[in-house]
Amino acid sequence: MPRLQNTIKPHLGLAALCLGVVLLCLAYLFGWTTHNWLLFVCLLLIIGGAFCHVMLLKHRSKY
Hints:
mainly alpha; 79% helix; 63 residues
């Protein structure tokens, strides 16, 4: 199980960012843009995913 966590953990931020973008595109395509909760969730996923991705990259770097 620890090997699986080491494989998945570095990519969680990027996965959250991509999920937020896909949800935002689906919301636009299906006309769900009047639902503020969905747009807010997408925004949180995109910002949180970008933040986590950068923090994980900085944590892995030696510099």
